[in-house]
Write a structure and sequence with these properties.
Elements lengths: L11 E4 L3 E6 L3 H8 L11 E8 L5 E11 L2 E6 L4 H8 L9 E4 L4 E5 L12 E2 L5 E4 L8 E5 L8 H13 L36 H10 L4 E8 L8 E4 L2 E10 L2 E7 L7 E3 L2 E6 L8
Antiparallel strand pairs: 1-7, 2-5, 2-6, 3-4, 4-5, 7-10, 8-9, 9-10, 11-14, 11-16, 12-13, 12-15, 13-14, 15-16
Length: 286
């Protein structure tokens, strides 16, 4: 791969974009099950999975990690922030459920390109000092996230860019506000992350997701693109002057674009510059 990508960093660095939303109360699991796309009751205590929040039309508002501390405590690690607005909208659906939603702003999020000390796969680990450790990589490409009550790691712009670029390489869409409510889970390749269920009961957008899955109507999905120039979410992906798709997420010279599954042979361009298609990495599903 080209050397114009952000270099991996050593040690631990702070990330500023991710935020944590806490759901607490006896009805936390039931509330999350009714609002989000993945199957929360099947998640064991001490484990996490990818999940998604959709509109009634089945368009993705957010992709996040859902951590189940126990039956009455859930944490949503939202990599693109926005938890205050998310909580405000979700509170409209609480009604009589015994659940509270709050921005857990005491947590700092820290990252390292190294194997976790104790977490493994979907099982997270509680560390000394109240930190929570998460396994965000593979044996070949180890990555660790920690939710730390009193973070001390330094922040470096290039480190956050490097982390975001590896998110994209694993097929994790990082959605800016302009790309929310634009794409279905299938178009964003969330099946690769096991981030939604087609077997659970009703949730916003469930009918659209199930229909697309069972009738095989998904015609577009995610592709990883790399070029010499940075792209912007919303940029058109073209081939011989014809628009084939759209950049949904970008990080410097890497981009995730929604493109046809039966993509014609030929070169691709974004904003008039040539890009190459790269293989997405597997192993981030939990």
């Amino acid at each position: 791969m080209s050397d114009n990508l952000a270099p991996l960093f050593s040690g631990t660095r702070a990330l500023r974009r991710p935020q944590v939303l806490a759901l607490s109360g006896p009805d936390a699991v039931a509330f999350a099950q009714a609002q989000f796309a993945n199957d929360v009751p099947s998640l064991a205590d001490g484990h996490w999975h990818w999940n998604a929040w959709l509109t009634a039309k089945g368009r993705v508002l957010a992709v996040f990690q859902l951590l189940r501390l126990d039956a009455g405590q859930l944490l949503l690690l939202c990599h693109d922030g926005g938890v205050e607005a998310m909580a405000e909208q979700l509170r409209r659906f609480v009604f009589r459920r015994k659940v509270t939603l709050a921005h857990a702003d005491a947590f700092a999020v820290e990252a390292a390109f190294q194997a976790p000390a104790r977490a493994h796969g979907a099982a997270f680990a509680h560390l000394d000092g109240g930190a929570i450790e998460l396994d965000l990589g593979t044996a070949a490409h180890p990555r660790t996230l920690r939710l730390v009550p009193a973070g001390t790691a330094a922040y470096v712009d290039a480190a956050e860019l490097a982390w975001r670029q590896w998110d994209l390489r694993f097929g994790l869409p990082r959605l800016e506000a302009s790309q929310q409510e634009q794409w279905t889970p299938q178009q964003l390749g969330l099946d690769r992350l096991a981030a939604y269920s087609v077997k659970k009961g009703c949730y916003p957008g469930q009918e659209i997701v199930a229909r697309t899955h069972f009738l095989g109507k998904a015609k577009r999905s995610l592709a990883l693109l790399h070029g010499d120039l940075a792209s912007t979410p919303g940029d058109a992906v073209t081939q011989a002057g014809a628009t084939l798709g759209t950049v949904a997420s970008s990080a410097g010279t890497l981009a995730l674009a929604v493109l046809p599954l039966d993509l014609p042979a030929g070169g691709l361009e974004v904003a008039g510059a040539a890009v190459e298609r790269l293989e997405l990495l597997d192993g981030l599903a939990r």
